[in-house]
Amino acid sequence: MELAYIPSPSRGVIHLGPIPLRGYAFCIIIGVFVAVWLGNKRWIARGGRAGTVADIAVWAVPFGLVGGRLYHVITDYQLYFSEGRDWVDAFKIWEGGLGIWGAIAFGGLGAWIGCRRRGIPLPAYADAVAPGIALAQAIGRWGNWFNQELYGKATDLPWAVEITSSSDGRVPGTYHPTFLYESLWCIGVALLVIWADRKFTLGHGRAFALYVAAYCAGRFWIEYMRVDEAHEILGLRLNNWTALVVFLLAVLYIVLSARKRPGREAVVEPGAADPDAPAGKDGDEGEGDGEQAGAGSSADVPDEAGSAKKS
Q: Which listed site, 94, 223, 257, 277, has its alpha carbon 20 to 30 Å from 102?
């Protein structure tokens, strides 16, 4: 008999009359709000306008949700298109199933569209929101707890998670809470990026690349612990290979970017120093790398980090 464990909720949805309130969806929504809130504080500290991060998130978040779901459905197609399965379930995003790789890729595309409309360099925006994205992932992982999914091997450790559901091949028992491990790792990644950004004045997308590399390092060993069904290549799960490749690409970007474009952007949002100036539109000049002298210099970094620490 286990002396201690993390109990799973008896259900992941509460009905408020005819309206279902799902724990998984709540975790995603709260994570988005935290990411926008922290990203906005960091963007202002870099010399940008208040509200710009939220405006661009209107593009990035929907794209990210679609990309995350597409990656999950494509890489786990057997859950929706094999014999005995209902393909309609592929659209039931509230039941869980978002691939972070697809979410970041498509979310980045949405952010690029939003940045281009505002005349903002995407790398600067990515640097500002990187710690917030990590915290959003930390919160979002608790949605897997509500759904009793993404756990590791059986264990009797005091922090094991108890699985009570027997549906979809689950076997009731106590297991490694890999959702918790990843949540804690993502919090550490957010703190690492905030510290490194302050210490080394990261710019031109290097703070975001650090977030990607650090997340991939943790995802590799956490993924190795999981026991849910997954495609394997040469004995490793597909997501292990994805984490390894993306990690190497992120590190390569940091090295090459630091050599080619040292320092950080002096201007992240054209006209932000003038509160009466209109926001950038498509085709504005000066939207490229923001190398001009102006607001948002490295002198803002201590304020940026100080604000972030209060989160």
A: 257
| Tokens 């690029």, residue located | 112
Number of residues that make up the chain: 311
Of residues 183, 134, 169, 133, the one with CA closest to residue 6? 183
- Distance between CA 31 and CA 140 in Å, rounded? 6
Dump pLDDT digits (tens) for 179-197: 999 999 999 999 999 999 9
Question: Residue 13 carries which side chain, given as an amino acid letter?
Answer: V
The torsion angle over the Cα atoms of residues 55, 198, 184 and 310, rounded to 10 degrees, is: -70
Tokens found for residue 195: 């510290």
Work out whether the CA dihedral 69, 70, 74, 80 comes out positive or negative. positive
Classified as helix, coil or strand, 14 is strand
Q: Is the pTM of this model over 0.85?
A: no
The Cα 58–Cα 93 span in angstroms is 19
Q: For residues 71 and 78, what is the distance between their CA atoms, to the nearest angstrom? A: 13
Which residue bears the tokens 């290097």? 206
- List for the chain the helix, strand, coil content (%; round to 5): 60, 5, 35
